[in-house]
Amino acid sequence: MSVYDAIVIGSGPGGYVAAIRLAQLGKKTALIEKYSALGGTCLNVGCIPSKALLDSSEHFHQAKHQFIAHGIEMKELKFDFKKMVQRKADVVSQTVDGIRFLMKKNKITVYHGHGSFKDNKNIIITKVDGTTELISGEKIIIATGSKPSSLKGVTVDKKRIITSTEALKSEEVPQHLLIVGGGAIGLELGSVYARLGAKVSVIEYAEGIIPSMDRSLGKELQKILQKQGFDFYLNHGVTSVTSKNNQVTLKATSNKDSKEIELSGDYCLVSTGRSPYTANLGLENIGITLDERGRIPVNEYLETNTPGIYAIGDVVKGAMLAHKAEEEGVFVAEKIAGQKPHINYLLIPGVVYTWPEVASVGYTEEDLKSKLVKYKSGSFPFKASGRARASMDLDGFIKVLSDSDTDEILGVHMIGPRAADLIAEAVVAMEFKASAEDIARISHAHPTYSESFKEACLAATDNRALHV
Q1: Cα torsion 244, 183, 17, 302: sign
Q2: Domain edges within the chain
Q3: pLDDT for res 153
Q4: Model confidence over 178-192: pLDDT tens digits?
Q5: Separation in Å, CA 243 to CA 180, 181, 239, 329
Q6: d(Cα 233, Cα 247) in Å, to the nearest integer?
Q7: CATH fold of 356-460, please?
Q8: pLDDT over 90 (residue 253)
Q9: Do the Cβ atoms of 110 and 38 come closer than 8 Å?
Q10: What is the pLDDT of residue 36?
Q11: 311: pLDDT strictly greater than 90
């Protein structure tokens, strides 16, 4: 039986990053992955393939709607969806190959099969052919990720009533795509198909889309997506989704007046969130009981109630984000090695990769109001940015929230071009407790999108924005 300093179960962003950091710290490490490809949901059927399709569809959308304004004429413009899907597959393959290379580079032993606990030191690996292998580890990290959540009363058949996994593998563009859930996953995949000509209808239980973010972002994104052809049915609860003869019928009831609506389409994407994946891990053999949401309880060091067993990523509380899982993977690896790492969960940014992109970090206005925190708010619209004018990206804004007394930045919320990248400056500023004036006094290159962050900070600092 092979014995390791540490074993990681699951090779998604949290798992493989934890394995790499453990190896860097001199630990003999094993990584167990249920499927043949490394990388988990994110690399195979999540973050990476969705961004590949988003980029391809955005190029087509720009060619169709914006190139003429740039003096570029396109005749008989068309897209090859099969080629788009193939490019997506190539991007995934290259990325997965990169992870495989990193495992070899760091001398991490990779096992393919389903890992489960025999006890708190030994893991049984059940392979595809049914054979088993037993390995032992001094420390074990559970990083098995999550799976799409189901909705009460809705049966996903993976043909017409689908999850994000099937939506990313579709061989055709829907004529009318119904989307249950107005969060990041549904809106991103809806954007892909709307750009390629599909009618898209979003049914959301909450009063606004992307409800976990600052409310102003959801309102702005809804306006923009409506201009792109989206229909929204907010504050509606889905009661049933049925499929017959390649058609899907959805029924939903208004939360306000109980009136029922009925929508028909050729596909229905159920994107109501994700659930921790902990099936058949043998947790009962090591005394771990899941919480009410199916998550693994951990302490501040991400250690379970069983000493030496840790859990990270989507199987523990907190946002289900790849980069959050990566931070936790590094955190646990360094903790195992005797270091003193830290994670500030408030400063884990959230991003929606529509176009324009949406990004947020820190407290929302709703958070600050509920906490009775006195704050200042400053905003700057991208339509006032010279760089955004040049690229025809005029929708959106950046909003900065700062403490009324100290001017410390408490939250940054943006919707606009390259917001996914721009948010990093806000994270750095907040990590070092910068004030809005600190950012306002830093030189930002001109013309750039990042100037808009500076202007929003100026606006938060006694309404001193220069270009509005």
Answers
A1: negative
A2: 2-148+275-345, 161-272, 356-460
A3: 83
A4: 999 999 999 999 999
A5: 15, 18, 14, 41
A6: 20
A7: Enolase-like; domain 1 (3.30.390)
A8: yes
A9: yes
A10: 95
A11: yes
| 161, 241 contact by CB (below 8 A) | yes
Q: Which residue, chain included where needed, has tokens 């914006």?
A: 66
Polymer length of the chain? 468
Residues in CB range of 325: below 8 A, 6 or more apart: 12, 13, 14, 15, 17, 143, 145, 312, 313, 314
Using DSSP's 3-state secondary structure scheme, residue 260 falls into strand
Query: Residue 204 and residue 331: Cα distance in Å, rounded?
Result: 35
Residue 341 near residue 334 (C-beta atoms within 8 A): yes
Name the one residue in this structure whose structure tokens are 């999850």.
163
> Is 176 annotated in the active site?
no
CA distances for 3 relative to 27, 28, 102, 104, angstroms: 11, 9, 21, 18
Q: Dihedral, CA atoms, 313, 319, 322, 326, nearest 10 degrees?
A: -50
Prediction pTM value: 0.96
DSSP for 208-253, please give it: SSSTTS-HHHHHHHHHHHHHTTEEEEESEEEEEEEEETTEEEEEEE
Q: Retrieve residue 320's tokens.
A: 């289900």
**Lookup result for tokens 């993976």:** 158
User: To the nearest 5 percent, what fractions of the chain are helix, strand and coil?
Assistant: 35, 25, 40
Catalytic residue among 59, 65, 70, 446: 446
CATH 3.50.50.60 correct for 2-148+275-345: yes
Distance of CA 13 to the CA centre of its chain: 12
Among the residues of 228-372, which ranges form H helices? 322-336, 365-370
- Residue found under tokens 């606009």: 416
Q: Which CATH class is domain 161-272?
A: alpha beta
The alpha carbon of residue 226 and the mean position of all alpha carbons in its chain are separated, in whole angstroms, by 22
Residue closest to 177 by CA, chosen among 185, 78, 256: 185
- Give the DSSP letter of residue 435: B
Topology agreement, domain 161-272 and domain 356-460: no
**CB of 321 closer than 8 Å to CB of 360:** no
Q: What tokens were used for 463? A: 């309404």
Structure tokens at 373: 């925190």
Instruction: List b or e across 288-297, with b for residues whose CB sees 16 or more CB atoms inside 10 angstroms.
Output: beeeeeebbe
Positive/negative CA dihedral, 411, 416, 418, 420: positive
Spatial distance between the Cα atoms of 169 and 153, rounded to a whole number of angstroms? 25
Token pair, residue 47, equals 């973050």
Q: Residue type for 52, please?
A: A
In terms of C-beta density within 10 A (0-12 exposed, 13-18 middle, 19 or more buried), how is residue 298 classed? buried
